[in-house]
């Protein structure tokens, strides 16, 4: 009896262990079932896409003028703050006026004196003409009065010219802005003598709205412009990249040099850029983006979805049975925002654009179409890369 009980207990223990092992195996098998990876995908198609070319460039003021003292004297007043924006015709400096007012008063007095003498000589001429005609006065006396009349007339003209010069010199004592723009620092302090023997530079003004951006495409790119560009003056914008944000300023290309730089095989070009808030300063390093065309169809994808291995470039698309499929591609034109695919994709393919680090060929996936948010057209609109001239 004792032996039977012992055998029964052993059987029960073995059965329990077997059941436990089967249960653990079943749980282990359940845990190994991996749910599909949730991903976003965009549907691609060959379609016209705005094409831009980017270059490095440098900004330059549209006009850079020195403000000079055109007459000599003591500088009495400065009417602007260093670095301020000024309008054309705005008063900037004042030079002591006493000397120039006195010169004007003297010129006016001399003219009045000459006019009085002229009137007297004219009266003598008018009085003697009938007397000479009747033989009651010698002609020599009339000739003398006529000569005096002519001399005083010339003196009046001379005095008038001196008045004009005196007024001009007096006007030069108030120095105004020749152009609108941003003024530099005041270079001469009040109380100093200026304009003595030279036209002293008092400050400078830079006109920076609009501002120029110069860049140098290659000869090859110029041929592309000539062949494909939709406009004689294509749309353009410049970017200034900072630590926190990238600033953008819009404009147009309006100048192309008439010869190639032999040392670099490039051609100097210029974009005129709107700068109403004067945020873009001369001498700034910028990226110049030039619009070429938006009528040529491409199959475009975002550059960040492209992988590279020993066989070349590849991407992942949504394959059959909702599995990730590795597809080799060949690319063409590319920018930081999009890349054209020449081989490897067809219209309707769904390119995976998220969870890229987790992808592998044959992985089960659950795809959500985000073309409206992540597709190339959405990127173009978000980054304002569809020019106003585009149809």
Give the structure's gist in a few sentences:
The protein has 391 residues and is of the alpha+beta class. Among the domains are: 97 residues, conserved putative lor/sdh protein from methanococcus maripaludis s2 fold, CATH 2.40.420; 95 residues, Efflux pump adaptor protein, beta barrel domain (Elongation Factor Tu (Ef-tu), domain 3); 76 residues, Helix Hairpins, CATH 1.10.287.
Question: What does it look like?
Answer:
The protein has 391 residues and is an alpha+beta fold. Among the domains are: 97 residues, conserved putative lor/sdh protein from methanococcus maripaludis s2 fold (Beta Barrel); 95 residues, Efflux pump adaptor protein, beta barrel domain (Elongation Factor Tu (Ef-tu), domain 3, Beta Barrel), CATH 2.40.30; 76 residues, Helix Hairpins, CATH 1.10.287. It is 31% helix and 34% strand. The protein has six helices and 22 strands. The strands form five sheets. Strands 3-10-13-12-11-14 form a six-stranded antiparallel β-barrel. The relative contact order is 0.19. The mean pLDDT is 89.
What Rg do the Cα atoms give?
43 Å
Overall mean pLDDT score? Answer: 89
Query: Terminal Cα separation, in Å?
Result: 100 Å
**CATH C-level name of the domain at 37-47 and 297-382:** Mainly Beta
- Estimate the strand proportion: 25-35%
Shape, principal axes of CA atoms: elongated
The low-confidence runs, each spanning 5 or more residues with pLDDT under 50, are: none
Main β-sheet description: 6 strands, antiparallel, barrel
The topology string of helices and strands comes to HEEEEEEHHEEEEHEEEEEEEEEEEEHH
């Amino acid at each position: 009896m004792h032996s039977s009980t012992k055998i029964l207990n052993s059987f029960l223990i073995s059965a329990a262990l077997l059941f436990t092992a089967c249960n653990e195996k079943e749980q282990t098998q359940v845990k190994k079932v991996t749910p599909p990876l949730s991903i976003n995908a965009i549907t691609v198609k060959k379609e016209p896409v705005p094409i831009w070319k980017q270059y490095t460039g440098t900004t330059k003021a549209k006009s850079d003028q020195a403000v000079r003292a055109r007459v000599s004297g003591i500088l009495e007043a400065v009417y602007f703050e260093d670095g301020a924006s000024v309008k054309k015709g705005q008063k900037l400096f004042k030079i002591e006026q006493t000397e120039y007012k006195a010169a004007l008063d003297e010129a006016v007095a001399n003219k009045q004196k000459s006019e009085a003498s002229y009137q007297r000589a004219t009266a003598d001429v008018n009085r003697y003409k009938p007397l000479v005609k009747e033989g009651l006065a010698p002609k020599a006396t009339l000739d003398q009065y006529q000569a005096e009349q002519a001399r005083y007339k010339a003196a009046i003209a001379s005095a008038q010219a001196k008045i004009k010069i005196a007024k001009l010199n007096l006007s030069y004592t108030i120095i105004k802005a020749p152009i609108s723009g941003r003024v530099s620092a005041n270079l001469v302090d009040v109380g100093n003598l200026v304009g003595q023997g030279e036209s002293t530079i008092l400050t400078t003004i830079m006109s920076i709205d609009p501002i120029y951006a110069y860049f140098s495409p290659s000869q090859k790119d110029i041929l592309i412009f000539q062949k494909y560009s939709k406009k004689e003056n294509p749309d353009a914008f410049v970017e200034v990249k900072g630590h926190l944000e990238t600033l953008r300023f819009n404009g147009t290309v309006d100048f192309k040099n008439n010869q190639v730089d032999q040392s670099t095989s490039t051609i100097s070009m210029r974009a005129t850029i709107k700068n109403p808030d004067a945020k873009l300063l001369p001498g700034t390093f910028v990226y110049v983006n030039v619009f070429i065309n938006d009528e040529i169809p491409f199959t475009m994808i975002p550059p960040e979805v492209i992988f590279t291995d020993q066989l070349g470039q590849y991407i992942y698309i949504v394959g059959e049975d909702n599995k990730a499929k590795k597809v080799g591609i060949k690319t063409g034109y590319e920018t930081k925002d999009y890349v054209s695919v020449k081989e490897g994709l067809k219209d309707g393919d769904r390119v995976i654009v998220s969870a890229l680090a987790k992808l592998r060929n044959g992985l089960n996936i659950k795809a959500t179409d985000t073309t409206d948010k992540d597709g190339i057209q959405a990127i173009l609109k978000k980054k304002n890369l569809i020019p106003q001239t585009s149809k």
